[in-house]
Design a protein that fits this description.
heterodimer, A: 244 residues, alpha/beta, 6-stranded mixed sheet, 8 helices, disordered N terminus, B: 296 residues, 14 helices, globular
Chain lengths: 244, 296
């Protein structure tokens, strides 16, 4: 078997457009199990468009997305602002919804599911928040709860859009170690990043979007000559560049 | 004292129509408020209102064809309501216009068509009945219909409850979970239409939405939890529909407005004195003591 056939997700000569305007062209990609890929590029460079295409929400003009991961094992964590946080739901309830793929949306949860949910919350350090409504959480706590849902989901393909925006340092540390664990267990992770420090700590590979094209670069090529992350002159153009 | 209580609360139910109306009202109070709670949580509070107008042409058509027959009018209402919901959904999918904009366009067309149809075939008394309801008209057939629809709504809601919750919170997650996730929203809209058709007999098409929304918006001032919201709104709706019927009986006023005004009074009271987000809650200065959160 060749290495290629093992990959979870392949992009073949992908051409994507939004409202009939070409956003990305000739995108090639190969995402292996266990690899964390950082997706970087300025605002408007097509990161969200590419994620939409990978999630099957946007039909490519030409080329194809080949994904061997079942739809319910793909997890997509949008930017925090996309969620309605006034909704009266507790942290535990949110985490438990991740059990749907194995369990279905219509049957009740059993004790084993609750145990798994509690383990996950303990791993993320949010056990004491289990019954707290989402609306009362801080940004970091909420992000941990959302990651908890993807853990519950046993996601094999995980896409995260700026997971570290508005998140405290301790949470970033926990999330990075959890994401690394998930990758070690075989998950394929794609994460939109704006911060060079996070990129250096997390990414195995980098797909840089610029001017409608994608370029694969090694993380070291982006970071090795700039030792202190705070003064990286290379701007990724994002809102959060260097701010966390 | 006991006599007074009996005169006010017991003796009205010597009349068959009052008994039927109160049972119908209680059945509606079980089904309508949970729908309202979800509408409020989704920021779609006005959709209920729009749908209430949308069923009017169907009701009118049923009325023209079969006279004051509840099954015909309800069937017409359901058909028209579903049609408008489908059309609005289709327009918003097709043209990128938001669903509320499409809904607003269709419901105002429906309202005009409905009023036109009724005035073609009936008198202004009929129009008042359809718009504002009449408890006198609740016969056993109507009661069975109301109870049947309410049961259907409660059971369906219980089945799709969790999917509905997630659809409110994070539609993208739900869409990721299933290829056919769109049906959750459609089923919800269908339940809405069914509920409004069941309600128009006692409350009238325009008022039926009140029993759905007012208890739900009031409950928001008393609870921060979904179960709490649903429970409280059901209790509020039951009190309002029974009390409103009694008021309407004693004071000889139309049943729909008196039920809704009672629920409205409950809303104003909640907004002033409720536990959360109310005026009183704003003025309150008491808090729970600071606790050290232990990280496990």
């Amino acid at each position: 078997m060749s290495q290629r056939s093992l990959s979870r997700l392949q992009l073949h000569n992908l051409h994507l457009a939004q409202a009939r305007r070409t956003v990305l062209e000739h995108i090639e990609g190969d995402f292996q199990p266990g690899a964390i890929t950082a997706l970087i590029g300025a605002n408007g460079s097509g990161k969200s468009t590419l994620i939409q295409a990978i999630m099957g929400e946007l039909r490519p003009i030409s080329g194809e997305v080949v994904c061997t991961v079942a739809k319910e094992r793909r997890a997509w964590l949008p930017q925090q602002l996309a969620l309605d946080l006034t909704f009266p739901m507790s942290v535990e309830e949110l985490v438990m919804t991740g059990s749907w793929p194995s369990h279905g949306a219509f049957t009740g949860y059993c004790a084993a599911h609750y145990r798994k949910g509690r383990d996950i919350m303990a791993r993320l350090g949010i056990s004491h928040l289990a019954h707290r409504p989402l609306g009362e959480l801080s940004g970091g706590q909420r992000q941990r709860a959302l990651i908890g849902r993807t853990l519950m989901q046993e996601a094999e393909l995980l896409l995260l859009d700026e997971p570290f925006a508005n998140v405290d340092g301790e949470t970033v540390d926990i999330l990075i170690s959890i994401l690394r664990q998930m990758a070690d267990e075989g998950a394929t992770i794609i994460v939109v990043l704006h911060d060079m420090d996070h990129l250096r700590r997390l990414a195995d590979e980098v797909l840089m979007l610029n001017g409608g094209h994608g370029r694969w670069v090694a993380p070291s090529a982006l970071t090795h000559q700039h030792a202190p992350a705070q003064v990286v002159p290379f701007s990724l153009g994002g809102r959060h560049a260097g701010s966390a | 004292m006991l006599d007074l209580l009996s005169v006010w609360f017991i003796s009205p139910f010597d009349y068959g129509f009052m008994r039927r109306a109160v049972v119908g009202g209680l059945a509606l109070s079980l089904a309508a408020p949970p729908l309202g709670v979800f509408l409020v949580l989704r920021g779609m509070s006005l959709i209920g209102d729009a749908m209430a107008h949308a069923i009017l042409p169907g009701v009118a058509l049923g009325f023209l064809l079969a006279g004051f027959s509840l099954p015909m009018m309800s069937m017409g209402g359901v058909l028209f309501g579903l049609m408008v919901a489908l059309l609005a959904g289709a327009v918003s999918k097709m043209g990128g216009q938001r669903e509320d904009a499409a809904m607003a366009s269709f419901f105002i067309i429906s309202l005009a068509a409905g009023v036109m149809l009724i005035s073609l075939g009936g008198s202004s008394v009929d129009l008042t009945h359809v718009l504002f309801g009449s408890i006198l008209a609740v016969n056993s057939t109507a009661l069975l219909l109301i109870a049947g629809i309410s049961t259907l709504i409660v059971v369906t809601l219980a089945i799709i409850f969790r999917a509905l919750v997630v659809e409110c919170l994070d539609p993208l997650f739900l869409r990721g979970q299933s290829r056919r996730s769109g049906w959750v929203h459609s089923v919800f809209l269908a339940l809405l239409v069914l509920n409004l058709t069941a309600g128009f007999q006692t409350l009238g098409t325009l008022m039926a939405v009140g029993l759905m929304m007012l208890p739900a918006t009031s409950a928001r001032f008393w609870s921060n939890r979904l179960e709490g919201l649903i429970g409280i709104s059901i209790v509020l709706a039951m009190v309002a529909s029974t009390g409103g019927l009694l008021l309407s009986f004693h004071l000889d006023i139309p049943s729909g407005p008196s039920i809704i005004l009672l629920a409205g009074a409950g809303y104003l009271f909640s907004a002033l004195f409720g536990r959360y987000h109310s005026l009183a809650a704003k003025l309150r200065r008491k808090t729970t003591p600071l606790t050290v959160e232990q990280v496990s």
